[in-house]
Amino acid sequence: MKLLYSSTSPYARKVRITAFETGLHDRIELVPIDTTNPASGLSAHNPLSKIPVLETEFGPLYDSPVICEYLDSLHDGPKLFPAAGSARWNALRWQALADGLLDAALLIRHESIRPVEYQFEPYIEKQKGKILGALDAMEKGAADLEGRLTIGTITAACALGYLDLRFTDLAWRESYPNLAKWHKAFAARSSYVDTLAKA
């Protein structure tokens, strides 16, 4: 399998952590892609020209929730996607919440690299509100992150890691101590350490 990715993409990081945690990382070839380069050929693998993309024997898979669930189907260990019941819906809810935080963060990131005269501050503030709303919910539910490793906990860790990478001025740990405590423990996992990116 080949993973088309960028080292700074939090969605690709989610896939890479999943690969480590399921013992599949040695079966995946990492292929760096420059998403800003139209000549990269990314659109031939994903018509949306987005990463990550996992090339499989039956064709490309995208995006990160689909890729992660596919990888989770390939191993015999504890599943990151619980099969049924409240555990499943809790994991999927956390994944959706953390992915939503990342969606808002990436929209700010894309807006902020435009020339200043074209940036729309009310739009940026709206996305910041979504990030803070997600962090509020994550702080209140931080106890849910303890215990079993799931796609929800992985995605939450990647979301917080992206804030550390691109939004250092947010200083989220000061306002969200329960979340900070949980993240500190998760960040010691080798899968997290091995997928760290530099700004």
Automatic annotation (TrEMBL):
Q: Which domain of life is it from?
A: Bacteria
Q: Which SUPFAM superfamilies match?
A: GST C-terminal domain-like (SSF47616), Thioredoxin-like (SSF52833)
Keywords on record: Transferase
Has UniProt tagged this entry with the keyword Transferase? yes
Recorded GO cellular component terms are: cytoplasm
- GO MF: transferase activity
Q: What InterPro entries does the entry give?
A: Glutathione-S-Trfase_C_sf, Glutathione_S-Trfase_N, GST_Omega/HSP26, Thioredoxin-like_sf
Stored CDD domains: GST_C_6, GST_N_3
Domain GST N-terminal, by residue range, is 1-79
What is this protein identified as? Glutathione S-transferase domain
